[in-house]
Amino acid sequence: MASRRWRREPLGRAAGSGARRARRAGARRGAVRRGAVRRGAVRRGGARVSVTHDELREATLFASLGQEDLDGLARIATAEERGAGDVLFAEGDPPGDVYVVVGGRVTLCMAIDGGEGETCFLTLRRGELLGWTALLRRERVATARVVQPARLLRFGASDLLELCEEDHDVGYAIMRAAFEELADRLQHTRVQLLDMYGTKG
After folding, report:
1. What domains, with CATH codes, occur in the chain?
2. What share of the chain is helix, strand, coil (3-state, %, to 5)?
3. Can you say how many angstroms the Cα of residue 120 is from the centroid of all Cα atoms in its chain?
4. How far apart are CA 99 and CA 178, in angstroms?
């Protein structure tokens, strides 16, 4: 059962944020020059492929953000193309990166029967968030496996948290979208449990 998609109205911007944005832009340019992390592109067949605003807007997480904010996200994003069967992370792994699915499908599974088997409970598609527990600095609660060749946007959790800390308007927009998506997933899980063990009422 696919997750429900929803539309949100753009969020208003706080007054007096121009100076803060200028300082943030300067800090980001410095970070990019230092080249500590490969940002904003992926190499595919020897060609440089940029992360586009359209790809970022596909994510419910970033849909309400403006162009300047998307510029900042593009600088900390890395695009990846992964094949069917690839494991992005495993249940119990330490926190790492956060992903947005741009194309293809990724399924989430949990171990059962003392690790002898697993059950897959959610399939993520275009525009959906993957690996959100990294933002809470918690270990992975499920295994993420590509089931259909996928294009992903990858963000270092620390980079994304730093961006949210630098601009609280951006942080609020991202966190609100994340809470909405997670609430939808909880409702999806509730429906699954009702289908398995009982009826609504």
Report:
1. 25-197 (2.60.120.10)
2. 40, 30, 30
3. 19
4. 12
Instruction: Render pLDDT for 120-163 as a digit per residue (tens, 0 to 9).
Output: 888 999 988 898 888 888 889 899 999 999 999 999 999 999 99
Instruction: Say what the pTM is.
Output: 0.67
Asked if residues 48 and 200 have their Cβ atoms less than 8 Å apart, the reply is no
Measured torsion, CA atoms of residues 18, 21, 27, 33, in degrees rounded to the nearest 10: -110
**Measured between alpha carbons, how far is 169 from 157 in angstroms, rounded to an integer?**
18
Interhelix angle 168-197/67-76, rounded to 10 degrees, is 70
Neighbours of 28 (CB within 10 A): 18
pLDDT 10s digits, 72-84: 999 999 999 999 9
d(CA 137, CA 94): 8
Question: Which of 191, 2, 180 lies closest to 105, judged by CA?
Answer: 2
* Residue 135 contacts residue 178 (beta carbons within 8 Å): yes
